[in-house]
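Lab notes, practical 5.
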Amino acid sequence: MLSIYSVSDVNRHIKQIVEGDEALSGIWVRGEISNFTYHTSGHMYFSLKDASARLRCVMFRGNNARLKFMPADGMLVFAFGSVGVYEKAGDVQLYVEDMMPAGTGSLYLAFLQLREKLAVEGLLDASRKRPLPRFPSVVGVVTSPTGAAVRDVITVISRRAPGTTVLVVPAQVQGDEAPESIVKALELVNRASALIDVVIVGRGGGSIEDLWAFNDERVARAIAGCKVPVISAVGHETDFTIADFVADRRAPTPSAAAEMAVPDLAETRQALLQLSLRLEAAAKAEVRRHREWFERVARSHVFRFPQDITRDHRQRLGDAHQRAVAAIARRLAEKREVFGALAARLDVLSPLGTLARGYAVVRTLPERRVVRGVRSVAEGDGVEVLLADGSVECVVTTVKEGGPNGRRGDED
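Output from the prediction step:
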């Protein structure tokens, strides 16, 4: 069956094949630069060519910022990167991550190999970087005692922080003996680490060969093992060495390292003055705000006429008292009325009421049981007759049956 692909499908497939080929990833390409363009975006666009072929290249701003030279047409270079496809145009191109002039290839490759080795050991990790002291008392400087770098450092520190001590630890910074000399100087710094707050290691500008001592593995390990924070300051802003990667901070020049090491005390005083003024203004504003609040409160009706408040409360309290007294009186009257009614009912039902009307209650002696009928007693029994005003003890002489009207009474 015939398959029809869109242009996008074809380019996407080519991109997957090319970028999936490990043989085209992380490679070095040697060629001559042509059609070089430094775009306003910061990206570099160019081609690498040889006698029979041409390869499009792009180097993005984040990568070309690390270059130590400015590429130009006709320059023979080594370019490191990976081959990819710009899908929109279907262009196969090299995405360059690093680049160096072909004439310095062996040194640069040695530089890359050492950087990779130290990175694997973790010596380049950001987590190892120590903060610099804010106000150092003593700044160590490992450099040539006769070079321009040490003069620049002393001048800058004297201007920015006049009371700071600069301790120069002499070292040879160029030539075959320079690495060992720098290592020994850092050993002296370690012995005096209780006195030195921060150390600057570096030199002025020069060729890559002049600066090579700071790409030595011994120097790198000595910097990494230094007991005080280290600022590297090798060459100019475009110069990068292994020392820059292992140091706690990297300065583009020795003068910049001095500015990084100590604060500008004049600026610090000015900043403190401004802070003091802001604090004073804030305190005054707070006091003014509270004063205005107190004045508003003092002008309020409560504070100007407090008797009005107490009078109103006294009136409300008096009214409440009268209402409470009236309520209690009503409740007492209601209870008194109920109590009277209950007392009247009790009078009606009470035996005492019956006695008061002329009746009597008879009880047996000594049991004192109420006699409810003639059969409850016999002749000769003692009885007690309860009257309204007292009692009478009697002896039964005769028992007669029959009610007051001659009817026979019922015995309960």
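Observations recorded by the TA: The chain has a mean pLDDT of 87. The longest strand covers residues 27-38.
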